[in-house]
Amino acid sequence: MLHRYDWSETSLIVELFARSHGRIAVVAKGAKRPTSQLRPVLRPFQRIQAHLGRSPVGAELHNLRTAEWAGGLPAVGGEALFSGFYLNELLMKLLAREDPHPALWDAYAATLPGLGGEGEPAALRAFELRLLREIGLLPDLSRVTATQQPLQGDVRYALQAERGVEPGGARDASALHADDLNALRAALDANDLVALQQACIAPGQALRRQLRGLLAYHLGAVPLRTRQVLRDLQPLISP
C-alpha cells in the first residue's frame, strides 16, 4: 500500500502498487469502522493480497472486495519512515495508473528493508535510477546525448533533463566521472539492484544532486511533500 485518503465517514480510497497491474486506486468500503477486517491490513508498506470487484470499463477506481496480509512484517519503521514515504510519493507522482512495472515493483520491495541503515543513501539513489529508467526518463548513460559519442574517461559529465548527458563544467562539483556513469549503466542493464547500490556509493552527493535535478524537472513546480516536511523539521532536530 502506498497511500490512503478519507472517502467518507467509514470508507477509504487506497493507492496500491501491484506487481502485475502497476499503480491502482481502490475504494475500501467500511475500512474505517473499528470492526472492519480491512482496517489492520491497509497500512503503508504492508504487502497484501488484494481481490478487486468488477469496475466499469475505463473507471480509475476499483472496488476492493477483500485484502489479506501477504506475510512478513512491515519493512519500514522508525527513522526510515520519511525515506519510505519519499519512495511512495515518487511512485504516485511519476507512475501512470495501471501501467505495470514488475521489475520496478521487485526493486521497491527489495529497497524498503534497507532503509534506515548505513546503506540508505545508496539504496535511495539506486531506486531513483531504476524508476527513471523504467518510465523512460533516464538518458543513455554510456554516451553524450547530443553527439552519441562514448564517454571519455578523463571527462566529467552532467545529467540534464532536456539535453541528457553532456560534459560538465570544469568547476561543476556535481558532475560525474565517466567511470561512475559506466558502472551505473552496467548495473542497470544487468538488472542487478545490489550492484547498482554499490555503484551509487562512489559518486555519493554528486549523484544525489544530479538525480534531484532530473526528478525536480519531471515532477514540476510542486515540491514533494516528504521533502518539504524534512526541510520544515530540520531546524527542530538539528543541534
Give structural notes.
β1 and β2 (12-18) form a beta hairpin. The strands form two sheets. This protein has a five-stranded mixed sheet. The protein has a three-stranded antiparallel sheet with strand order 7-6-8. It contains seven helices and eight strands, in the order βββββαααβββαααα. The protein is of the alpha+beta class. The protein has helices spanning 81-94, 102-111, 120-134, 178-189, 193-199, 204-219, 225-237; strands at residues 3-6, 12-18, 22-28, 48-52, 61-69, 156-160, 164-167, 176-177. α2 (102-111) runs antiparallel to α3 (120-134), α3 crosses α6 and α4 (178-189) packs antiparallel against α5 (193-199). It is elongated and about 65 Å long. It has two domains: 3-69, OB fold (Dihydrolipoamide Acetyltransferase, E2P) (Beta Barrel); 78-237, Recombination protein O, C-terminal domain (de novo design (two linked rop proteins), Up-down Bundle). Helix content is 36%, strand content 18%.
Task: Report the structural category.
Answer: alpha+beta
Overall structural domain count = 2
The tally of helices reads 7
N/C terminus separation: 35 Å
List the main descriptive attributes of the protein structure presented here.
36% helix; 3-stranded antiparallel β-sheet; 239 residues; elongated; 2 domains; OB fold (Dihydrolipoamide Acetyltransferase, E2P); 5-stranded mixed β-sheet; single chain; de novo design (two linked rop proteins); alpha+beta; 7 helices; 8 strands
